[in-house]
Design a protein that fits this description.
Layout (H helix, E strand, L loop, with lengths): L1 H5 L7 E5 L3 E7 L2 E3 L2 E4 L5 E5 L2 E7 L1 H22 L5 H14 L7 E9 L2 E7 L5 E3 L2 E4 L3 H11 L6 H18 L7 E7 L2 E4 L2 H7 L1
Antiparallel strand pairs: 1-2, 1-10, 2-11, 3-4, 5-6, 6-7, 7-8, 8-9, 11-12
Length: 207
């Protein structure tokens, strides 16, 4: 059963990069159902708080549910603790939620990125709730192609403004070779200034 569910995670490409001043997250906007392009404008990157963002791959209902749950949990945390939820705490909580449902899993892979104070952090969460902290990560069927760009061009210590074109190039390259990755590109940054989503016009200039 789990192998069948894993097949639903294959289509898409998402990218995450840890930079000197923040985190860059990028995704495509194509949603597929087998050989059908079900949507050309699917959102796969979400603001959870001013300092945390998710990228999602997998079933639409499952990923949206996890986003809604974590938005609520982050608000509860801030109300109770008096400070915003940290990126590590957020990643660990969603990891626990997914692991607790391992026999009836959420069909989802997530990137959880953002700022813990002055420190940018990025986590990968798999379908079983496994959690790893990364500096460079790509998920989905286009990830092998995207990694070829990221590993070659991204350098630790880059600023977000220098890393954004690399993330866009990785997505564009994946689109050329992976049929489940396509249509538009969405890019967000999370820095000390908060969550920022690039406009389509800004992305087109970079592409």
């Amino acid at each position: 059963m789990k192998e069948e569910k894993l097949k639903h995670l294959e289509g898409t490409t998402t990218v995450g990069l840890v930079c000197k001043d923040g985190v860059v997250l990028a995704t495509d906007t194509r949603a597929t159902m087998g050989y059908l392009v079900a949507s050309k404008k699917a959102r796969k990157v979400y603001c959870i708080t001013d300092n945390i963002a998710f990228t999602t791959a997998g079933g639409v209902a499952d990923t949206e549910q996890l986003v809604n749950v974590m938005r609520a949990e982050a608000k509860y945390y801030e109300m109770h603790e008096g400070v915003p939820m940290g990126v590590g705490n957020c990643a660990k909580l969603v990891s626990n939620i997914m692991n607790a449902s391992v026999y009836y899993p959420y069909i989802a892979n997530l990137l959880v990125g953002g700022m813990d104070g002055d420190t940018p952090r990025l986590f990968f969460i798999d379908i079983d709730g496994g959690m790893t902290e990364e500096d460079i990560v790509a998920t989905g069927s286009g990830s092998p192609v995207a990694y070829g760009v990221l590993e070659t061009e991204f350098k630790n210590g880059m600023k977000t403004e220098d890393a954004i074109p690399i993330a866009v190039k990785a997505l564009k390259t994946a689109m050329k070779r992976d049929i489940a990755t396509g249509n538009e590109i969405m890019v967000v940054t999370v820095t000390k200034k908060g969550y920022n989503e690039l406009s389509p016009e800004e992305i087109k200039k970079l592409a």
